[in-house]
Inverse folding.
């Protein structure tokens, strides 16, 4: 069988598709697995041994479509389910499967606090897209593969990794709170994030006298993943590196601000693997205030992050 999986973005969402990729390859003997994603996310999947062909989308289907049609896919697995992925399925005209999105239920809990959310992870919902093929979740969790050339040597032999970045400010633990947590830790800390997070990393480093290395912007994605794999524990916002840490079965604390784990995007770990603690302020009447996030707290108090206990977070990390 020739099978095409679709997930255009972003880092965390793509990592969450890896159990489906693995299950398809291992449970359908001899299947050729193709995957299409945006060009900038190539590093997330380029080393995945279960993918036979990685297609890179640069915003224009004109050149890609004839090549994709020539593959005569037996089945298309749409794990994005937006206008672009529907268009691609329509143009290819092959049998397909997709998963259940929760947009209406998320809207209801954000706007009215009516909770009709199912208590299952998005990975388990992804498997609904391959149910027609008889493919089932093998329960082994996420995958993330790093080339030897992307492995780096950490500044410390033993350390705690803290992921300080994120797409939306209301999903990011404030610098002062991160520094407060660091002050309660006994191990050195390496701060991880992109170039856009470097200034925040410098701010955090300047607030603490504990050994802290600001590695934001110093490394690429897979090099940062290498550091995650070497860490003793991980403190992370709800971001792509959180899911990469889960793929390594790391002990971690994930912090939740304006969004909630019940949306189904919390760290996905197989039974008995890793140690995941969800740090959140429960029973806050304004939470969740968005299914994605904002540039700043709509109510200006940011209690969903500021009320988190640094003592509690540090205790779980240690």
């Amino acid at each position: 069988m020739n099978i095409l999986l679709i997930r255009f973005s972003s880092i965390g969402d793509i990592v969450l598709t890896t159990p489906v990729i693995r299950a398809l390859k291992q449970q359908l003997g001899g299947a050729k697995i193709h995957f299409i994603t945006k060009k900038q996310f190539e590093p997330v999947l380029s080393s995945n041994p279960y993918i036979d062909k990685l297609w890179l989308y640069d915003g224009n289907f004109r050149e890609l479509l004839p090549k994709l049609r020539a593959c005569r896919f037996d089945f298309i697995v749409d794990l994005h389910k937006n206008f672009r992925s529907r268009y691609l399925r329509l143009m290819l005209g092959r049998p397909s499967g997709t998963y259940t999105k929760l947009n209406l239920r998320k809207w209801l809990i954000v706007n009215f606090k009516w909770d009709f959310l199912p208590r299952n992870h998005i990975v388990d919902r992804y498997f609904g897209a391959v149910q027609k093929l008889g493919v089932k979740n093998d329960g082994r969790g996420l995958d993330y593969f790093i080339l030897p050339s992307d492995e780096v040597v950490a500044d410390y032999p033993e350390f705690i990794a803290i992921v300080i970045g994120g797409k939306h400010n209301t999903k990011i633990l404030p610098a002062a709170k991160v520094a407060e947590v660091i002050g309660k830790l006994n191990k050195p800390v390496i701060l991880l994030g992109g170039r856009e997070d470097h200034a925040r990393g410098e701010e955090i480093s300047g607030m603490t006298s504990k050994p802290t290395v600001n590695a934001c912007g110093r490394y690429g994605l897979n090099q940062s993943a290498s550091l995650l794999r070497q860490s003793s524990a991980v403190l992370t916002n709800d971001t792509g590196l959180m899911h990469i840490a889960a793929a390594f079965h790391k002990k971690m604390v994930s912090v939740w601000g304006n969004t909630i784990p019940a949306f189904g995007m919390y760290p996905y770990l197989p039974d008995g693997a890793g140690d995941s603690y969800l740090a959140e302020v429960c029973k806050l009447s304004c939470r969740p205030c968005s299914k994605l996030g904002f540039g700043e707290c709509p109510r200006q108090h940011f209690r969903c992050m500021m009320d988190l206990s640094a003592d509690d977070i540090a205790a779980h990390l240690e």
Notes: The CA atoms of residues 39 and 56 lie 5 Å apart. Residues 2-133 form a domain with the Rossmann fold fold (CATH 3.40.50.2000). The chain has two domains: 2-133, 148-317.
